[in-house]
Amino acid sequence: MEFLTPAFWVAVGQIILIDILLGGDNAVVIALACRGLPPKQRKMGIIYGTAGAIVLRVVLIAFALALLSVPYLKLVGGVLLIWIGVKLLLPQDEGDEHANIQSSDKLWAAVKTVIVADLVMSVDNVLAIAGAAESAGQHQLPLVIFGLLVSIPIIVAGSQLVLKLMDRFPVIIVLGGMLLGWIAGQMMYTDPGLKPYLPEAKTREYAAAAFGALLVLAIGKLIPRNKGETAAH
Question: Would the pTM of this model clear 0.70, i.e. be above it?
């Protein structure tokens, strides 16, 4: 049964890690959007908003999985994923990027805010998860749904714990950025437009994935250094 293959569970692990690393902002958005609700309605706002966001994200990922079969689109997606991985490694700005999230004292208005904000912020998650799911072969959408169902509660209930672990062990963020680079390398090597020109060898595919991971690490470490040198001048 394909659900028991190592590739399936590796992809599940990748999806959960991607969601935790890239989904911390979503937990903040949920909290900010529901902060104006009466205490009795906050729990319902979080549950309904999160459920709506999960359904919307599954639909988006289903479209993304279909689009990945279009020639040369994986190349574009791979470049975007590398940049997302690099951004993950860069120091965070001090400014409050969530200051414009509006709270509401009406339950459905708060739910709508959560869903719309998640839609805007989930492009990186959708792209990364679609790339991870594609590497597992068949049963991609069930894999995506399973990964989301496991990771979303972790984000909502344990976001503070996850953030503290990231602060204490920065290597988690570095490994997460490199994971995105790994997926990007795989995506770009397996692009349908390049298929006639590249040998179908798993060793070459893994080499491209490793190159993507190392590229994210190298750029992520280089940019802060360059910023420091510019500030010094």
Answer: no
